[in-house]
Design goal:
The protein is an alpha+beta fold. The chain is 19% helix and 27% strand. The chain has one domain: Alpha carbonic anhydrase (Carbonic Anhydrase II, Roll), CATH 3.10.200.10. The chain is built from 6 helices and 17 strands. Strands 2, 3, 4, 5, 6, 7, 9, 10, 11, 12, 13, 14 and 17 form a 13-stranded mixed sheet that branches. The protein has a two-stranded parallel sheet with strand order 1-8. The longest helix has 24 residues. It is globular. It binds zinc ion (ZN). Zinc ion binds next to β7.
């Protein structure tokens, strides 16, 4: 474990954040019970452009995602989790989301969990947020749209993704031992893992992709993918668990059942927009003002 002294508070927060991904379960045993086997709105799913219901929507807002902050990475035995320092709220809003969702953690799945037209890409990153109406993830899990997860898919290229370098350096330090926490050696901006174009995305109602598979997630899967090299991808397969190397950590796709998948963008022809959608657009901008004012006043003291 390599931890800079300035990361002590962040480490404490990491320990306090509910370990929604932790627990006694494995990817190799498909005996997940409860909502995992009985739910009708499970994730991940196969996303198909031709059946996605097209809807015009205002762009997603990634609040304070560009700000470089202290971050650390934890091997929790099921994935590696990035936690970022939050003296200003790092959050998402707008883009059809009903409220402001604060970032809790960023974690990785190798290979990807969501497939596009049945095609599986090598890596998927999940930005897990909870609605600020609720105190934390644990409370938010009781509500259908309590959590908002933004998923980014990665495709393999020849070139190294330089934004991933500090994350993978920390991963190498934490890979061997479950519970190891490693501070990133330089400040990290969550936006470093997003594609430049974030204005087109799939949207559907679903669940956590790990036990207890709670159906409390409004999913946003960005349409544009991010490049990563083969050598960088291989580093994820060096992550160790109590049951040996974690060769893959994705859940198979689940039945869509009666759900609708939306393909949302800000530049579609507007034939579906309703008065209520306009109202949400207005509210989503108003709700952003509070954390922005709070953050600018906090900035004077840090
Ligand atoms: Zn995940």
């Amino acid at each position: 474990m390599h931890l800079a002294p300035s990361s002590l508070l962040l480490m404490l927060l990491t320990v306090l954040i509910p370990e929604i991904l932790a627990g006694d379960w494995h990817y190799s045993e498909e005996q997940w019970t409860g909502q995992c086997s009985e739910g009708k709105k499970q994730s991940p799913i196969d996303l198909q452009e031709r059946i996605g219901k097209r809807e015009r929507v205002e762009p997603l807002i990634f609040l304070h995602y560009n700000r470089p902050v202290q971050a650390n990475l934890t091997n929790n035995g099921h994935t590696v989790v990035l936690n970022v320092e939050q003296y200003c709220e790092v959050a998402v809003a707008a883009g059809g989301l009903r409220g402001l969702y604060q970032l809790d953690e960023i974690h990785f799945h190798w290979e990807a969990e969501h497939t596009i037209d049945k095609k599986r890409l090598p890596l998927e990153v999940h930005f897990v947020h909870h609605n600020i109406l609720y105190n934390n993830i644990t409370q938010a899990l009781f509500y259908e749209q309590g959590l908002a997860v933004v998923a980014v898919l990665f495709h393999e290229t020849e070139q190294v993704n330089t934004n991933m370098v500090p994350v993978l350096e920390a991963l190498e330090e934490s890979a061997d031992t479950v519970g190891d926490i490693t501070a990133l050696t330089s400040p990290f901006s969550p936006s470093a893992l997003l594609p430049d174009d974030r204005n087109s995305f799939f949207r559907y109602q679903g669940s956590l992709t790990t036990p207890p598979c709670t159906e409390a997630v409004i999913w946003t899967v960005l349409h544009k993918t991010v490049p990563i090299s083969k050598l960088q991808l291989e580093k994820f397969r060096t992550v160790n668990t109590t049951a040996g190397l974690l060769d893959a950590n994705f859940r198979p796709t689940q039945p869509l059942n009666s759900r609708t998948v939306y393909l949302m963008s800000d530049n579609l022809i507007d034939d579906n927009e309703t008065a209520s959608a306009q109202k949400f657009k207005c509210w989503s901008y108003i709700i952003l003002i509070i954390p922005m004012i709070l953050c600018s006043s906090l900035r004077q003291y840090v």
